[in-house]
């Protein structure tokens, strides 16, 4: 199957392109948001090929995987065919709704030609899709392996653009975690955090835009993974940390209570319990190891790659066959 999709969400796409199909990823001269091409910090297989927009009209495409509303127009213009009419299409909804929640209407609501694949059951529940066909395909992770050592007795957070995104990703909670025993923040555009939070360097350290392999190595050396997001879809970095064998302390929001069982760590909406949970794992390495092993077992069972790819193969095949 030849699949056209944009490079929008690097971690999700890394899992999606493991399916053994031919994947066409648009690339533009400036490698802007609509033409990033192949990933540079993730490891993608060779069957992911870059294609220039001007060549797409002459390229056979079996199905289009849409991830942003404007890609409907882009695909129609670049392919010369309308998604859902002239070429099969599926829309992936990565995000929690914004605006008048829970009455936010989905951009593809009310139509019956393009199914909407939500990455969490929470997203499916909260978006108003108004009769459009919806399915839930839970995340699947390329297993990085059991790497946890916890030798660096500090907490770790992975977050992108925390200054701009603010409370939605729990940026205001980071100082609470940092003062417990030190915090390392990994991600993109985290370099502004020290100036904004004004914490001493022993409490807060940032690690800007590391390649995925190196980030996994460094995460697994930290004692505990902390997930502070209030209103985002289920963070893949959380599931990756669980795969690595890290214990988890997480804010009880959106899909997290379903993704992190009690044996895998602490999920709470209470400020004091959040910091107490971090302190507990920093003080007890043996407990952290035991909890991290349980987190990994749960993640492998519920967010494994094979299940993810099997569900996607079924949805893509049904779209191509017109079912």
How would you describe the overall organization of this protein?
The longest helix has 18 residues, at 285-302. This protein has a seven-stranded parallel sheet, sandwiched between helices. Strands 10-9-8-11-12-13 form a six-stranded parallel sheet, sandwiched between helices. 34% of the residues lie in helices and 18% in strands. It starts with a strand and ends with a helix. It is globular, with a radius of gyration of 20 Å. It has two domains: 2-140 and 305-320, Glycogen Phosphorylase B (Rossmann fold, 3-Layer(aba) Sandwich); 152-302, Rossmann fold, CATH 3.40.50.2000. The chain has helices at residues 10-16, 71-79, 121-126, 162-165, 174-181, 193-197, 212-221, 236-244, 256-259, 271-283, 285-302, 305-320, and strands at 2-5, 22-26, 48-51, 63-66, 89-93, 116-118, 134-136, 152-158, 183-187, 204-208, 222-227, 248-251, 265-268. It is of the alpha/beta class and 323 residues long.
Low-confidence stretches: none
**What summary fits the major beta sheet?**
7 strands, parallel
Secondary structure: helix percent? 25-40%
Percentage of residues in DSSP E strands: 15-25%
Overall outline: globular
Record the SSE blueprint:
Layout: E1 2-5, H1 10-16, E2 22-26, E3 48-51, E4 63-66, H2 71-79, E5 89-93, E6 116-118, H3 121-126, E7 134-136, E8 152-158, H4 162-165, H5 174-181, E9 183-187, H6 193-197, E10 204-208, H7 212-221, E11 222-227, H8 236-244, E12 248-251, H9 256-259, E13 265-268, H10 271-283, H11 285-302, H12 305-320
Parallel strand pairs: 1-2, 1-4, 2-3, 4-5, 5-6, 6-7, 8-9, 8-11, 9-10, 11-12, 12-13
């Amino acid at each position: 199957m030849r699949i056209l999709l944009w490079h929008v969400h690097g971690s999700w796409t890394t899992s999606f392109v493991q399916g053994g199909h031919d994947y066409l990823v648009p690339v533009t001269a400036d490698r802007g948001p609509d033409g990033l091409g192949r990933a540079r910090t993730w490891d993608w297989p060779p069957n992911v090929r870059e294609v220039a927009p001007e060549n797409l009209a002459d390229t056979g495409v079996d199905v289009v995987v849409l991830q942003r509303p404007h890609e409907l127009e882009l695909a129609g213009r670049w392919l010369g065919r309308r998604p859902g009419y002239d070429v099969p299409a599926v829309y992936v909804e990565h995000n929690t709704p914004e605006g008048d929640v829970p009455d936010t209407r989905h951009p593809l609501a009310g139509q019956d030609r393009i199914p909407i694949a939500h990455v969490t059951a929470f997203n499916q529940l909260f978006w108003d899709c108004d009769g459009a066909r919806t399915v839930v395909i839970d995340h699947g992770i390329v297993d990085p392996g059991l790497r946890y050592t916890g030798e660096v007795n500090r907490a770790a957070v992975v977050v992108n653009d925390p200054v701009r995104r603010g409370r939605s990703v729990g940026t205001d909670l980071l100082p609470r975690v940092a003062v417990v025993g030190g915090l390392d923040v990994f991600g993109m555009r985290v370099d502004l955090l020290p100036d904004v939070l004004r914490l001493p360097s022993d409490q807060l350290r940032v690690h800007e835009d590391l390649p995925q392999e190196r980030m996994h190595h460094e995460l697994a050396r930290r004692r505990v993974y902390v997930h502070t997001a209030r209103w985002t879809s289920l963070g893949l970095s959380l599931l990756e940390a669980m795969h690595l064998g890290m214990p988890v302390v997480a804010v009880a929001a959106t899909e997290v209570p379903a993704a992190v069982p009690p044996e895998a760590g602490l999920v709470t909406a209470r400020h004091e319990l959040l910091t107490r949970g971090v302190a507990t794992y920093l003080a007890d390495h043996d407990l952290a190891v035991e909890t991290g092993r349980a987190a990994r077992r749960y993640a492998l069972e519920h967010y494994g790659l094979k299940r993810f790819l099997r569900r996607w193969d079924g949805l893509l095949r049904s779209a191509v066959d017109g079912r």
